[in-house]
């Protein structure tokens, strides 16, 4: 029974990684950049919820909505101010370093406003635990909510990208930016929309992450951000189902590694699996094979 | 042909000259007592980061691969050399011991460079970057659970604190997450000269990288960066040259690690995380990709900046972040570049018109 219990913990953690990874993968697929600041948007989202509830006395639902709106706007602003001017820069590294700068900026702003000590996160999601097999397997409410939410997001996002007009515009921009522009797709607006969706998802990820692990510091988003990035690469960066599968696999591997091998080397195991996958399949599980033309 | 050679040589000597000049200025300041304790403490780390940035530039700038695991190689160099220093503390006098420690750090890091480079260099672009990041984290994680000690029966290695048992009189050197302590105390007699040693190591690093880049191999490395397929088609062994750049870079990062670990009384593995790799990458990109002198100067300024901003207390890292973003935009955004070249034209405007006429 402990195996199933670990599996469910793994899927729960993996679902959170998957939601973060979706943000990474969409931005990478469309803007062709690694948004290192994505993890820190998660932290910002969590702080907004915490502040709205404890200082503003708002209801949890309202606080979550405010957080999503706040992060969405933040994502659009970051893209417009810091990334857009560099989109046509001669080196891809320039925008990567700028993203790192944005990440430092968000962390240090949070440090100034909220201080370095860990805050305990409030209970936002209040769902009773589910007891199965006469109490042998207890599934926490937050675990159920996390998994359900991530499945809904995944389905909605797939529908959006495949069936709606802005979604198809995203696909077109990711395929060939110049050709899309010639076909009348507004590339700037499409990239802004991608950042908006990615950052809105980050707010939801912040809520789920801090509900499952209820401590919050300015650096909370950094490590899950990196892990989610790994998950996105694992699944094939740029692919939506890839991010989902990569995220969940990563969460399961991490929890199994902690449970059965050693909690200290769990991260090393996660990274080692990534390396093995990439060596066997260099573009990730669901990645497209890019043919090189001479 | 002769002129061209002279230009390269001259350029190299200008770089050495800058290092020596900076060293002379710092020495004068410190001997006249004008250098604060804070600044004195920064000198050796400055050398460490300069070596790291120059060596990373070899991979990022000349071989054209993004590496996010440079701190991992520094970590390997730091720990292997510190272990060596502790084990030979009674057997060797400090000067040859330190030279050997540097060699040990460089060789071990270089071996890791080969081992990691062979699989990693099969990948391209961002995938390569994420795998180097992964290797850096794995190295950090594994050293974190490593226990090493010596006693009369030889060297003992364990992975848990419970399994780590030594005979009476044995010495525990590496204690897992607690790291290695007391390395700098082994070199009490030459500790004063660490800055001089650091500057010499910076010069050696510059010498190696500059000569490699300007050699036949260096041109081969750059050709694989500019066009992999074209390089292959004229018979250049792409993997070999990429691996060469990667390994030399790893070995030099190991040297930076040696200097880092021997300057500290407490060495903990947690400092060698991806943030450190990213920090070094920032120096390389801001100083100019493929520009060694630029990496050196960027490392010095950007490492000193947060320390010099200590007066601003909590705002210092915020200022650092803003400066970083603004500098990147100013340096790289096409709009800013156009604006800059227009400004330059304005200043030179009169002269250019005359020439045209």
Secondary-structure blueprint:
The complex is a heterodimer of chains A (294) and B (357).
Chain A: H1 2-31, H2 38-54, H3 60-83, H4 92-114, E1 119-120, E2 130-132, E3 137-139, H5 141-163, H6 165-175, H7 177-182, H8 187-212, E4 215-216, H9 222-235, H10 240-261, H11 266-280
Chain B: H1 2-31, H2 37-62, H3 70-87, H4 94-120, H5 125-144, E1 147-151, E2 154-158, E3 171-175, E4 180-181, H6 194-213, H7 216-226, H8 228-233, H9 238-262, E5 266-267, H10 274-287, H11 292-308, H12 316-332, H13 334-356
Antiparallel strand pairs in B: 1-2, 1-3, 4-5
List keywords for this structure.
heterodimer, A: 294 residues, 11 helices, 4 strands, 72% helix, B: 357 residues, mainly alpha, 3-stranded antiparallel β-sheet, 71% helix, 5% strand
Short description:
Chain A has helices at 2-31, 38-54, 60-83, 92-114, 141-163, 165-175, 177-182, 187-212, 222-235, 240-261, 266-280, and strands at 119-120, 130-132, 137-139, 215-216.
Please, could you describe this protein's structure?
- The complex is a heterodimer of chains A (294) and B (357).
- Chain A is mostly helical and 294 residues long.
- Chain A has eleven helices and four strands, in the order ααααβββααααβααα.
- In chain A, strands 1-4 form a two-stranded antiparallel sheet. Chain A has a two-stranded antiparallel ribbon with strand order 2-3.
- In chain B, strands 2-1-3 form a three-stranded antiparallel β-sheet, covered by helices on one side.
- Chain B has 13 helices and five strands.
- Chains A and B meet through helix 4, helix 9 and helix 11 of A and helix 5, helix 10, helix 12 and helix 13 of B.
């Amino acid at each position: 029974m402990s195996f199933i219990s670990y599996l469910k913990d793994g899927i729960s953690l993996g679902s959170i990684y998957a939601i973060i990874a979706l943000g990474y993968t969409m931005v990478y697929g469309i803007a062709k950049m690694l948004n290192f600041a994505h993890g820190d948007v998660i932290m910002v989202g969590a702080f907004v919820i915490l502040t709205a509830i404890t200082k503003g006395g708002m209801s949890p639902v309202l606080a979550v909505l405010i957080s999503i709106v706040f992060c969405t706007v933040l994502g659009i602003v970051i893209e417009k101010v810091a990334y857009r001017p560099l989109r046509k820069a001669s080196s891809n590294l320039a925008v990567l370093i700028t993203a790192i700068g944005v990440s430092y900026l968000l962390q240090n702003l949070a440090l100034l406003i909220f201080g370095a000590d860990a805050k305990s996160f409030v209970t936002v999601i209040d769902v009773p635990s589910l007891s199965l097999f006469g109490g042998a397997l207890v599934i926490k409410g937050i675990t159920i909510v996390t998994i359900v939410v991530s499945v809904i997001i995944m389905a909605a996002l797939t529908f959006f990208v495949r069936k709606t007009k802005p979604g198809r515009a995203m696909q077109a921009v990711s395929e060939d930016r110049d050709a899309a522009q010639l076909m009348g797709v507004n590339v700037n607006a499409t990239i802004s929309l991608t950042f908006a969706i990615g950052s809105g998802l980050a707010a939801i990820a912040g809520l789920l992450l801090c509900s499952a692990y209820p401590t919050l510091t300015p650096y909370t988003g950094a490590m899950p951000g990196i892990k989610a990035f790994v998950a996105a690469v694992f699944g094939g960066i740029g692919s939506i189902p890839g991010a989902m599968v990569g995220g969940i696999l990563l969460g399961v591997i991490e929890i199994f590694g902690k449970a059965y091998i050693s909690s200290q080397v769990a991260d090393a195991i996660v990274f080692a699996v990534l390396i093995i996958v990439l060596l066997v399949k260099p573009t990730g599980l669901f990645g497209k094979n890019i043919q090189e033309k001479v | 042909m002769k002129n061209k050679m002279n230009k390269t040589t001259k350029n190299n000597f200008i770089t050495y000259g800058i290092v020596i000049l900076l060293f002379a200025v710092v020495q004068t300041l410190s001997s006249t007592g004008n250098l604060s304790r804070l600044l004195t403490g920064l000198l050796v780390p400055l050398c460490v980061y300069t070596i790291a940035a120059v060596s990373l530039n070899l991979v990022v700038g000349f071989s054209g691969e993004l590496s996010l695991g440079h701190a991992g190689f520094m970590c390997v160099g730091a720990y292997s050399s510190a272990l060596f220093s502790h084990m030979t503390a009674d057997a060797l006098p400090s000067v040859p011991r330190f030279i050997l420690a540097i060699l040990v750090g460089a060789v071990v890091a270089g071996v890791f460079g080969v081992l990691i480079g062979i699989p990693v260099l099969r990948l391209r672009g961002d995938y390569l970057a994420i795998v180097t990041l992964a290797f850096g984290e794995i190295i950090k994680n594994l050293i974190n659970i490593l226990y090493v000690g010596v006693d009369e029966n030889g060297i003992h290695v364990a992975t848990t604190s419970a399994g780590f048992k030594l005979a009476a009189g044995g010495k525990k050197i590496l204690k897992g997450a607690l790291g290695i302590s007391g390395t700098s105390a082994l070199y009490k007699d030459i500790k004063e000269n660490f800055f001089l040693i650091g500057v010499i190591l910076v010069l050696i690093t510059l010498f190696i990288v500059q000569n490699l880049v300007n050699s036949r191999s260096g041109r081969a490395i750059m050709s694989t960066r500019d066009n992999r397929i074209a390089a292959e088609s004229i018979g250049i062994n792409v993997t070999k040259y990429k691996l060469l750049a990667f390994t030399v870079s790893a070995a030099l990062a190991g040297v930076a690690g040696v200097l880092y670990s021997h300057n500290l009384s407490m060495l903990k593995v947690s400092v060698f995380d991806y943030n450190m790799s990213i920090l070094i990458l920032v120096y390389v990109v801001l100083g100019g990709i493929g520009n060694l002198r630029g990496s050196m100067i960027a490392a010095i300024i950007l490492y000193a900046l947060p320390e010099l901003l200590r007066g601003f207390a909590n705002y210092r890292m915020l200022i650092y972040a803003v400066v970083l973003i603004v500098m990147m935009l100013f340096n790289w955004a096409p709009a800013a570049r156009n604006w800059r070249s227009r400004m330059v034209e304005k200043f030179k405007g009169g002269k250019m018109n005359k020439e045209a006429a």
